[in-house]
Predict the structure.
Amino acid sequence: MASSAEDKFPVPKFHFTVDLGSGPIAFQEVTGLDMENDHMEYRSGDDPEFVTLKRAGLRKTGTVSFKKGVFTGDTDVWDNYKTIIDDKNYYSQSTPVDLTVTLLDESGGTVITWTIAKAVAIKMTNGDLKSEENAIAIEQIDFVHSGIIQA
């Protein structure tokens, strides 16, 4: 039986899991799950059309950021970033890892899985500390990568 548009509803984006290569970590926010290709233009000299051909060029990848609240005794994010500090060969930028972000439906089933290939942690932010605010402490870790695979 074919389903109609009335039977379907988009999946909410608030239920997801993240694995930074060392097991699941509960994050509040994930941003930067995007890629882009440059484009190339080409026209051969004997082409009768006076229009250039458009082709996909090199892929550009950005930075994926993960944010979460700070908890007493929870060092998972710092431990991931610390691999760069412990690596004395700064030219290697540590060993790249594959990260996994999984969007879940209301019952906890997998809807989409993004694998962030060959990611390297590049930045750790511990947020602002302000005595006048009634807010929780947030930490953030940023990764550069070689591409995103969606399954």
